[in-house]
């Protein structure tokens, strides 16, 4: 199965916007890829509306730089491994595994967050 170019662009563009502090661009990445609906799940956290979840994630942006360790896109699915690095110290804040599924303009995003030492 071939890579989905739209999904490939999304997984990299949202991180680029994040690291540049471009909130509008970050949110636009989600709205552009998901015109027919978005679901966001932070595994283990209480369920939130997608926009509330994205806003909660963004609140950490000033303190966190994202390094992409690996991003794999196959067909309408993608999985990424991100290292979230503290800007102030360069230390690891968290690792995230992110799973995306794109179907008919609907994006499902699941975020697994591990904290060092836990």
Describe this structure in words.
The protein is an alpha+beta fold and 118 residues long. It has one domain: Roll (Nuclear Transport Factor 2, Chain: A). Helices cover 31% and strands 41% of the residues. It has helices at residues 5-20, 23-33, 50-58; strands at 37-42, 64-74, 77-86, 92-103, 106-114. Strands 1-5-4-3-2 form a 5-stranded mixed beta sheet, covered by helices on one side. Helix 1 (5-20) packs antiparallel against helix 2 (23-33).
Core attributes:
118 residues, alpha+beta, Nuclear Transport Factor 2, Chain: A, 3 helices, 41% strand, globular
Helices, by number, come to 3
Helical fraction = 25-40%
Work out the number of β strands: 5
**Whole-Å distance between the termini?**
37 Å
CATH topology: Nuclear Transport Factor 2, Chain: A
Order of helices and strands: HHEHEEEE
- As a whole number of angstroms, the C-alpha radius of gyration is 14 Å
Beta strand %: 35-45%
- Please tell me what the overall shape is: globular
| Coarse structural class | alpha+beta
Sketch the major β-sheet.
Answer: 5 strands, mixed
Q: What count of domains describes the coordinates?
A: 1
Kindly state the mean pLDDT as a whole number? 94
CATH class (first level) name: Alpha Beta
CATH architecture, please?
Answer: Roll
Strand order in the sheet with the most strands: 1-5-4-3-2
As residue ranges, the low-confidence spans are none
């Amino acid at each position: 199965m071939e890579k989905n170019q739209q999904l490939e662009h999304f997984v990299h563009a949202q991180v680029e916007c994040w690291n540049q502090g471009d909130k509008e661009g970050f949110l636009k990445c989600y709205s552009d890829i998901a015109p027919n609906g978005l679901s966001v799940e932070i595994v283990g956290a209480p369920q939130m509306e997608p926009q509330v979840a994205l806003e909660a994630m963004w609140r950490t942006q000033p303190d966190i730089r994202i390094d992409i360790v690996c991003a794999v896109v196959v067909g309408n699915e993608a999985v990424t491994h991100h290292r979230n690095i503290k800007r102030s110290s360069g230390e690891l804040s968290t690792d995230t595994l992110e799973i995306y599924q794109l179907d008919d303009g609907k994006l499902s995003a699941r975020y697994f967050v591990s904290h060092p030492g836990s």
